[in-house]
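Title: Request for sanity check on Phage tail protein, P2 protein I family prediction

Description:
We are preparing a figure and want to confirm that the structure record we downloaded matches what your pipeline produces today. Could someone re-run it with the sequence below and paste the raw structure tokens into this thread? We only need the token string, no images.
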Amino acid sequence: MNSLMDYSITDLLPDSLTKDAFLVALAEAVEIELKELYREAEMISNFYDVNRLPEILLNFVAHQKHVDFYDNALPIETKRRLVKESPYLHRIKGTPRAIEKAASTIFGRSKIDEWFDYNGDPFCFRISVESDKHGASEAELISLDKLINAYKNVRSHLDKISIYLASQGGMNFAGCALAGEHTIIYPWSTTKLEGKGNMRFGAGYQSMETTIIYPA
């Protein structure tokens, strides 16, 4: 779809007006101002498209949206997720889900266990974090503690942090199949003999009778 930037107002003027130098100059001046306003409006609209914002503007938007836990040293993709999820996190702030969601966004998959899940002291909780992007240094633990304090309710108290270091990698599998055929070729041999010729058959019969005459 074409936008205002693709058109020239002077091209839209009828022939009767293109002969008036004043009107042509006026149209060109109006076109310059309209396109400048269009560029400014486009820049403003980009503030709502977090995926397209440059990092320096993203930091300002995070401040404007009151992202509770935001660090300029975070990777830019993590910053984008925090800014996009900020309205939702504000709605559920003070709940275990808010802590889990925020911690999962920055550190890795997280799970909250409340005091009645492990027979702990009332209004205490503990959190387990599966970290595949961060370590377990003192600075990381302090950062995680700040995040928890930013999203938990006032009456709840952190009892324990468990960090499980995980790694991700790819596994390559390969397979090979070999097939063959074993053929034995024997020397040629005669398997059927056929003879042709004339056959004659003959038969004979002989009969003999003996008579003995005795004296009278």
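Thanks, this matches our download. The beta strands are 108-114, 124-131, 157-165.
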